[in-house]
Amino acid sequence: ATPTALLVGTGRGAQLGILIKGPEVLESTRRIDTIVLDKTGTVTTGRMALVDVHLAPGVDRAEVLRLAGTLESASEHPIAKAIAAAAPELGELTEFGNVEGLGVRGVVDGREVVVGRAALFGELGELAEAKAAAEERGRTAVVVGWGGQARAVLAVADTVKPTSAEAITRFRELGLRPVLLTGDNEAVAREVAREVGVDEVIAEVLPADKVDVVKRLQDEGHRVAMVGDGVNDAAALAQADLGLSMGTGTDVAIEAGDLTLVRGDLRAAADAIRLSRRTLATIK
Ligand code: ADP
Ligand code: MG
Which positions carry the signal peptide feature in this UniProt record (predicted)? Predict the structure, then answer.
């Protein structure tokens, strides 16, 4: 391989909005057959909005929004930003902690508040129906509770990027098998997958386990590309044969990847793979 031809390839990459760590990266794209896509912030915009509030009997809406919003104001998660933005006022936060892949907990106005997936709670009671209904509509159901009891379900919605479906079509044209990978629940993941034309979904995966999904696919004999944007994608991006990070994502993810898609447009991932295959063909 002549280094010059590879560098021409990387120069073209920059024009397409793809940053390549080093020319040797291109070599690893050659036999990629599977492309694993993180959902939030990669296939979707990651800009969430609060679209519905369901209260348990006797619970005050403003109180739910104040307690949940205060707790979420300390989190960087896109869901947290949506909930914090919907709070009319903030209370006093004296303790805060992330529960990896599940949510957040802390003390607000002297009360122990938990916000996140239903798995953080024992019983949802009357709220179970609201949760199921929200998820059926492809929304993320976020449970808010305090004093050890679930008090409300917040329906949060994200939107699919307008370019994602076309990107998936291009992956298929390149002979790649797309797989959607997310920590979010199965119903939400299926809805997003349906919208963009992906058949294979691996949902409810804890952040630490995303890397194991990539390893498993590799053990099955696949050459795997992974596209992600979040801190929770970094290990999987590093493990993949080719790690592609969204330029709109976190620094940790960008560092873990081999390629950066500057504009956060998934179609650039297809461009990157096509470009590198072509570049390699030139130098063979
Ligand atoms: P993804 O893989 O989709 O980027 P994460 O692994 O970051 O998602 O989170 C998995 C799930 O945990 C989210 O879909 C959400 O239901 C819940 N969750 C995580 N962090 C928070 C938070 N700060 N507030 C509410 N829910 C959260
Ligand atoms: Mg993400």
Answer: none
